[in-house]
Structures are given as structure tokens and as C-alpha cells.
Design brief:
The protein has 140 residues and is of the alpha/beta class. Helices cover 46% and strands 25% of the residues. It has one domain: YqgF/RNase H-like domain (Nucleotidyltransferase, domain 5), CATH 3.30.420.140. β1 and β2 form a beta hairpin.
Length: 140
């Protein structure tokens, strides 16, 4: 079964999907933010189409370890998504996922022109890959 990762943003929502062995994270797509209700419905539908057994949502925190405003929006989105799907949902720390995604694309030699714009689905890949690796390290 697969895991779907969500990088929830104010304007866009990046999605990444694991392979069936839950080893590799790949970018899936970016959806444009409409409303919490519509966004959750879209993510629930995508999860159903891809045989997802778990949805993880990146949540950001402030320097004291409490969810910051973006992290609270992600939590509210998770609550709405749970109303629309039977798949379990887990909030995970997304600290620095966008910066890591940007740095990785630079390291891979992606041109500045192709890197311009949004990193949403790549941030979702970072969130998911970190989750998969942590899970693997807990249960080798």
C-alpha cells in the first residue's frame, strides 16, 4: 500500500506518493487552493484513486515547538480531510522541507529557470521521504 504526503500551503497543496513498498517518495501533483472543504475533497479523491493506506500532512512549528500559523492551518485541513476519508491521517514535522527541496534541485543541476516558481510537490517528497526513512529506522 502507498502513503500520500501533503505539503499544505495557503495557495497550493503539494502531493507526493510512495511506491507500494513504501521505500521511495515521488512527486505526484500540485493542486491549487480553493477552500478547505474543496481541497480536502480533492486530496481524499486522489488518495482513493492511488490505494493510499495513510495520509501524512506536513505541519510546521515555531521556535518553542508549538504549531505556527501555517501549522495550525495544516491541522485544520487534517481535521476536514478526516471528515472526508476513512484513511488514517498523521501530522508530521515539515521543518525546512521547502528549503531542502530547493537545495536538492540545485544539487541535481536543475537550471535556475526550471527551479523558478513553486517547490510544493518537491517539499511533499521531502516530507514523505523523511517519514519513510524514519519508519525504516524504527523497524529495520
Amino acid at each position: 500500500m502507498r502513503i500520500l504526503a501533503v505539503d499544505h500551503g495557503e495557495k497550493r497543496i503539494g502531493l507526493a506518493l510512495s511506491d507500494i513498498t513504501q521505500t521511495i517518495a515521488s512527486p505526484l501533483k500540485v493542486i491549487q487552493h480553493v477552500s478547505r472543504l474543496v481541497d480536502a475533497a480533492q486530496v481524499a479523491e486522489i488518495a482513493g484513486q492511488n490505494d493510499v493506506e495513510l495520509i501524512i500532512i506536513g505541519q510546521s512549528y515555531d521556535e518553542t515547538g508549538q504549531p505556527n500559523p501555517a501549522g495550525r492551518r495544516a491541522a485544520r485541513f487534517a481535521t476536514e480531510l478526516q471528515n472526508q476519508t476513512s484513511q488514517p491521517i498523521e501530522l508530521v514535522d515539515e521543518s525546512f522541507s521547502t528549503q531542502i527541496a530547493r537545495a536538492a534541485r540545485i544539487e541535481l543541476g536543475v537550471s535556475r529557470k526550471k527551479r523558478a516558481g513553486h517547490q510544493d510537490e518537491f517539499a511533499a517528497v521531502v516530507i514523505l521521504q523523511n517519514y519513510l526513512e524514519a519508519k525504516r529506522n524504527l523497524h529495520p
